[in-house]
Amino acid sequence: MDIASLTIDRIHEGLRQREFSAAELAQAALAFAERENPRTNAYLHFAPERALAAARRVDQQLAAGEPPGKLAGVPIAVKDVIVTKGLRTTCGSRLLANYVPPYDATAVERLEAAGGVILGKANCDEFAMGSSNENSAFGPVRNPVAPDRVPGGSSGGSAAVVAQGTAVVSLGSDTGGSIRQPASFCGVVGVTPTYGRVSRFGLVAFASSLDHIGPFGRNVKDAATLLEVIAGRDERDATSAFAPVPLYTASLGESVRGMKIGLPKEYFAGLASETGDLIYGAVAQLEKLGCQVREISLPATGYAIACYYIICTAEASSNLARYDGVRYTWRSPQAQSLIDMYRQTRGDGFGAECKRRIMLGTYVLSAGYYDAYYLKAQKVRTLIARDFQNAFAEVDAIVAPVSPSPAFKIGEKIDDPLEMYLSDIYTITGDLAGIPCMSVPCGRTAEGLPVGMQILCNHFQEAAMFRLAAAYERARGS
Amino acid sequence: MKITETEVRYVADLANLRLTDEEVLRMTAELSSVLEHMDKLNELDTSDVPPMAQVLYEAEETATLRPDREKPPLGAEAALANAPQAGAGHFKVPKVIER
Prior knowledge:
With about 475 residues, chain A is α/β, with parallel strands linked by helices.
């Protein structure tokens, strides 16, 4: 059994044929992950007892003849901004280095109820703020494909474990591209579902009007399976949607002939040439599959970065106010008075990027600036969302790049925050509009760096999005 | 828009963040470049555009209401388990009232 290339289907076949038990698989997967992890630093910590207990439950179910869950025996990594009861959840922050949550996130409960085996927690940018995973207090993650390069961020660990084969699927979170961009950089599938499709109960909040939980997999079907399990209404998250969850995996084999696809011209102007060539190559494949491709326009695109970084920092400054040394594990030992304690704890505890975003967010919300920045950004957000609604009146899906260039070198952009923000241009629009979007591998550059193609669909059209992605994946032969 | 060092210090106080002098200088330069980029939004006329606070879907106004049923709470012990300092069922903080 080749652990690094397992799929959910292969695991289920192995369990059915009694080739291995879930406990044997969990042990082997843990041993492999612990051995391989020093190459990437993708896992922050492992959960051997929890994993084995989950695997034994699966084995008992199988022995009793009960139908196995959709994720029975599947080794999974969970981004360390998603809380796990009794299992340390650090958010990549020094402030929460020893935080042990008293409850499980809904997504975690659901994947374990479906037989999923959580091996450990995946590294990420501190509080999910970053595009390179260099903002983790516990060290950067190396891209498994090119170890001198970043895996992308903020869900860099979640993408890297799947690319490296140290988990079969993983959970990440996406606020401005934190699932799709690392998926693209590491050459795996990453999915940002419709806003509200997956409960955020237990996702440590960054920017609440933009935060999503979503899956990574080595193929479209595995990612779709994980989403199927975690999606759906949860009364503990009032923003979770009531819409029924279709069986995404049931229609993956269907034809995409006649599907109308739009290429937004604003997204193809500033691309690195190799990235552009690979995306155009993928588009040519889609045409061969019978899709009708046409150019569309999303005119407000040029304003998305400014809009996004106002809204997300404003919400972050509010959400991160709770880390003040009172409730969450770490308090600066130096402070004497209460106000000193707040300020010193936050000043010493947060890393540079979190402080930058808290400062920006506090500034744009402060008296005299609210209308000029925050309210203005919310209006521009309406324009960006309208662009998509207009586009989806004419096309079924939008195809675009994920990132202007492939994975960059560790340290290359860390000193220029604006430059780093600008590289999020193709992913933040989907989050601002709340539509489902995903990254599918579409080839590698001459240097061997993976490039992802982005597919965006209208609200709750995940099934169509997966169908297109699966058809492309088959045509490409991966 | 450029931000001044004085404004950076003022905002840091609002945000309850202690910054070193070096951080204040760096923050002044970095925030200024980001805020200048944000000024781009002023190119757009949004006088007739409603603000979008959240992605909203069609649903009954009462859809998110649920029956008011009693459920076991987390409990003080679990809630305090991560406290840097706790005692007598409370979070402890430095003294705020002089007597």
